[in-house]
Amino acid sequence: MRIIRNCLVLLALVVAFDGTRPTARADEAEAHYRMGLAHKKKGEDAAALREVEQAVKLRPEHAAAQMTLGGLRRDAGDMKGALAAYEQCIKLSPKHAQAYAMAGAVLVRMQRYEEALPRLQKAIELDKSDVSSVSNMAVALRKLNRIEEAIPMLEDAAKNNPTDADLQNNLGVALRKARRYEEAIPALQAAVKLRPEDTQSRKNLAITLRGVERYADAIPHYEAVLKATPHDTGSLYDLANCFEKLGKNADAVKTYQRFIDALGDSDAEAAARAKARIQQLK
User: Fold this and answer.
1) CA distance 166 to 89
2) Would you give the DSSP letter of residue 49?
3) Which among 202, 201, 154 is positioned nearest to 174, based on CA atoms?
4) Distance between CA atoms of 206 and 17, rounded to whole angstroms?
5) Which of 119, 135, 182, 232 has its CA 20 to 30 A from that of 88?
6) DSSP state of 164
């Protein structure tokens, strides 16, 4: 009888407060997680998010589900929710390099740069090949005006990963911020060559070329940017300025007018400056 009584006590201990066994809850959580992964594979992110959230609700200690939840929330624009999921994964798996990397990346997107640094540093310590965290860490350092710390890190990573467009772009931007324009240009040219469709790299290259008065070289890059984003007012104004510097007044006038039209009623002062330039050029 004592043995039977002890068995009954043990059985009671493994039953959850809602009357279900922990193993049953774990199985149910895993089923929701697998269903979420299936939805995600089909591109059904909203359904995937619902399933994975249910999995985590049933089993908060499911580290893989927390990571997946973080990614789904991030893609849905919920940075705060994504960060919470990644941080929970870090608590569950303190050596999970990707969890640190993603938490740091989300904090960079949230412009919480100081908080991002230790997480990104930990990600790099755990995974030496994590170039994305190097890029994100450099961005955070740059935003904190710690450019000189970012540059050596980026130079080393770019040297070891010459085909990584993000590294080349971030190196170029950091060098430009440090006023090392001639060194910035090759890095930005490499980024554009690696990823020609990336308008941000092209824009960074165009700005840098214009900064060293290489107006003719900058123009095709501004034009490529504007082909993809016709209402980019910054690029329109800079392109007009390049035309003006080269004495191409008709092109400058036309582009300043495009700038004014793109502005609409958003910036009367900038529009007035452009109108003044048009009057002078005419």
Assistant:
1) 26
2) H
3) 154
4) 63
5) 135
6) -
Q: Report the candidate in 25, 26, 28, 50 with the shortest Cα–Cα distance to residue 38.
A: 50
Pick the closest to residue 145 from 167, 168, 178 (CA basis). Answer: 178
For residue range 123-133, list pLDDT tens digits in order.
999 998 899 99
Q: Is 79 helix (H, G, I), strand (E, B) or coil?
A: helix
How confident is the model over 16-36, as pLDDT tens digits? 444 445 577 788 989 999 999
- 281 contact partners, CB below 8 Å, separation of at least 6: 244, 249, 252, 253, 256
Cβ count near 189 (within 10 Å): 18
Taken in order 189, 109, 138, 98, is the CA torsion positive or negative? negative
- The answer to whether 67 and 99 are in contact (CB under 8 A) is yes
> Does the predicted TM-score (pTM) go above 0.85?
no
| 67: Cα separation from own chain's centroid | 17
Token duo for residue 263: 């502005």
Query: Is residue 159 classed exposed, middle or buried when 0-12, 13-18 and 19+ CB atoms within 10 A define those classes?
Result: exposed
CB neighbourhood size of 197 (10 A): 9
Query: Cβ distance 141 to 117 under 8 Å?
Result: yes
